Amino acid sequence: MIDILIGTLCTIGAVAILIAAIGILRMPDFYLRLSVTVKAATLGGGLLLLSAAFYFPEEVSVTTKAVAIIFFLTLTAPVAAHLIGRTAYFIGTEKWKGTIRDDLAGMYDKETHQLGSGDNEGDNISHPSS
Amino acid sequence: MVKQFLMNLLLAFTWVALTGVLSYSNFLFGFAVGFLLLWLMNRNESDHRYFTRVPKIIGFFLYFLYEMIRANIQVAYDVITPKFFMKPGIVKYPMNAKSDFEINLLSTVISLTPGTLILDVSEDRKVLYIHVMYLRDKDQFIQQIKDGFERRLLEIIR
């Protein structure tokens, strides 16, 4: 019973990482690549670690380490993705031609790196008409 | 709230010490037993927040797991089939979360769901800019996040 569980978790995790790897190659632009990779890698790594924790049920050190790694993985991966995505947008990485909407365009102040919300027009962040 | 949580933790460790088996499943079982015990003892007291919050946290976790698997399958299908079905776009999302902690948790949860990626938080903390892979309708997407993740998350934190 526990073997089936471990096998299933391992397989799903490995397939998730495989799909992320294919996604890096196939996706048309940078943001989609980032979007596909980060989550699938977190899910895949998490599932593999979880199956390792189930494989050694009576060893607390293994389980504790696995849970700690999963915790920090889920905590840090989105931060890294957010920073990479923000930098990419800021330096003007091109979007795919199928992108249908861009609310972020013209919201950055290139001098101060400040980002406006577009709600209050009274602030000193410039709004180009494009 | 914190007092009850610490008490529950103490009961769980007592259970582990008494049974003599230090493993995760045994600890979780002890935690559940301790929770039940505290719930039985605290029924007449006024502060019920801890006892409504723990089931909500578990519910949120399951909901997040469900959303994650659903979106992962959608993205995986798009990756391995030759044709692209996606309609990417960057959406401005006005959020209800106010403090740093709430914004951090909300953006972590949104970022971890496949297909959505936080690009930036505005300087006055009113708006999130989200890159969405499958954007059919902007208002529908905002409503979906508001009713799903944000409402559940704020119910737990506040």
UniProtKB/TrEMBL annotation, chain A:
Which molecular-function annotations from GO does this UniProt entry contain?
sodium:proton antiporter activity
Q: Does the keyword Transmembrane helix apply?
A: yes
The residues the entry assigns to the signal sequence are: none
Q: Which keywords does this chain's UniProt record carry? A: Membrane, Transmembrane, Transmembrane helix
**Is Manganese found in the keyword set?**
no
In its UniProt entry, what is this protein called? Multisubunit sodium/proton antiporter, MrpG subunit
What NCBIfam families does the annotation carry?
Answer: CPA3_mnhG_phaG (TIGR01300), PRK12674.1-2 (NF009314)
Transmembrane stretches, start-end: 6-25, 37-56, 68-91
Report the Pfam families cross-referenced here: PhaG_MnhG_YufB (PF03334)
From TrEMBL, chain B:
For this record, the Gene Ontology CC terms, alphabetical, are:
plasma membrane
Can the keyword Transmembrane helix be found in this entry's annotation?
Answer: yes
One Pfam family per UniProt = MNHE
> Where is this gene product found?
Cell membrane
- Protein's membrane topology: Multi-pass membrane protein
In terms of InterPro entries, this protein maps to: Cation_antiport_E
- UniProt KW Cell membrane keyword: yes
Taking the first listed entry, what is the main subcellular location of this protein, grouped into a coarse class? membrane
Q: Which UniProt keywords apply?
A: Cell membrane, Membrane, Transmembrane, Transmembrane helix
Q: Where are the transmembrane segments?
A: 12-38
| GO molecular function, a single term | monoatomic cation transmembrane transporter activity
User: What is stated as this protein's family in its record?
Assistant: Belongs to the CPA3 antiporters (TC 2.A.63) subunit E family.
Name the chain's protein: Multicomponent Na+:H+ antiporter subunit E
Species the sequence originates in: Parapedobacter luteus
